[in-house]
Amino acid sequence: MAENYARRLLAYVAKHWRLAALTTASSLAATIATLVIPLYTRSAVNVLVTGRLDQLLPYALMIVALTVLQGVLGFATNFVSQYLAQRVIYDLRNDVYRHLQELSLGFYKTMDTGQLVARATSDIEVSSRFLRFAFSGFSGAVLTLAIALYMMFTISPVLTLYALAPLPLIFLLVRRYAKRARAIFDRARAVYGEMTSHVTEVVSGLRVVRALNAFAFLWQRFLTLNSEYLDLSLDVAKLRASTWPLVGFLSALSTLIVLWAGGGMVVQSAISIGDLVAMTLYVGMMTWPFIALGFFTVMYARSMAALSRVFELLDTEPEVKEAPDAVPLEVRRGEVELRDVWFSYDGKKWILKGVSFKVRPGEVVAIVGPAGSGKSTLVQLIPRFYDPQRGAVLIDGVDVRRVKLESLRRQVGIVHQDIYVFPDTIRNNIAYGKPDASMEEIVRAAKLAKLHDFIKSLPQGYDTPVGERGVTLSGGQRQRLAIARTLLIDPKIIILDDSTSNVDAETEKAIYDAITKHFKGKTIIVITQRPSTMKLADRIIVLDGGRVVEEGRHEELLKKGGVYAKLYGMLAPKAEVV
Predict the structure, then answer these.
(1) Per-residue pLDDT tens for 345-392?
(2) Any idea what the CATH number is for the domain that residue 495 is in?
(3) How far is 493 from 381, CA to CA, in rounded Å?
(4) 532 Cβ contact partners less than 8 Å away, ≥ 6 residues apart
């Protein structure tokens, strides 16, 4: 499986093959320059031993020149590999962000926000570090090992065999390290995601946490996760501490063996002192490739563990997909029809059961019913936040599954029950759906939502920051801001999902009067539990148990004495008390 993730990561690298080729070439050139230095060092030492000092300068200059060249190429390798890694991660991060926007709402009901944030940020960054090392360090290390071995064999095959004696033990140590590290890092990434999710939830729900005095319980949960992450980090530290000193000892042992055996060969004139010095330098160079192999295996394990979470996210198919032959939607009349619609979130329990009705162009329709009757679910099918399992949703006679999502949602404006306010200014919050809106348009939308007077009373007016999730605004003010945001887009169809529940009846009536007057001829669908809102509608559709059970005007439905009359009878006294 890890190989599959590696191939997919390489597919991103292939898009920037010129950068990959450049960093590989500079790394190889830097390595070759480094590996040639011992040869000139051997010649310089041999010249010194024979007393031919007049011949020393050329060798010394070459050593200096190669050292400078190695430094320049090393800098180029590090810079280009960094640039390459960042370009790859830039592309991957863009794909993740775009995919998050495309995933259906049902996905977010089952996925923790913290886990998603961790996958889109820290998990991707782990891969960035791996790529930088793979191109700047590991490729050079592999070449170093190969060329160093070749050079050593050309100097003395026998001495090379002595030097290689400890290498099998080094290989086994590195392999053991990589195997254990992979298991630890797999678990560590999962725990880190859980911890991020926990912190996100606590910060987002801080008011509830304090109101319920739940800090002790949540603190214990965080301590458990943090302690597990600490234990995993310490396991890595123990594994590292038990591996790398042994690798260093075996490398030093290899050097000692070369000096001991090579010293005897120098005495016997089998090799020169310069040969022994070059062999010692090459043995020292061989230490880094094995350390680099250890680093590479660990970083590879960490990167594959992180990428498994990233690509799992990218492989998640959206439940709502745009058809290949989808066409732009042009709403001319604004008629909305649900035709025998059946819907279930889990495929087992039906929320909507054969719902059929039609909203005429320019009509204000209220959809009411007991809690859990499917009202909010129903209106989320119109902009295709979900698709029904059976039946169809049509706008002006066109099935919404046949049109482009962007054109559909541009012309169907919905104000949700659960309102999200961005941590920005009031002006920018209203203009989120239309960033290029003029100040006049923003003010007009605020006036229609009966928010303008409140905004003007603030010291900074429309430039007032609203804080995280709009904490500086009341519930009613947040609702009116969300209404203004939707009205600014000027959609052909407006859906208000219990979006005036936190404003008084007088303000509510003023909002609806302003909307219906200014947007005369537009189709307006209102989900409500408020009797005052029900009275404002041209027609009322009553849901119960996922079915349409009644339909008509307020007075007509009261006379029937059915579900609506009972519901209104329960709600009206509460409204009067309020």
Answers:
(1) 877 889 999 999 999 988 888 898 888 888 888 888 998 888 899 999
(2) 3.40.50.300
(3) 13
(4) 505, 508, 509, 575
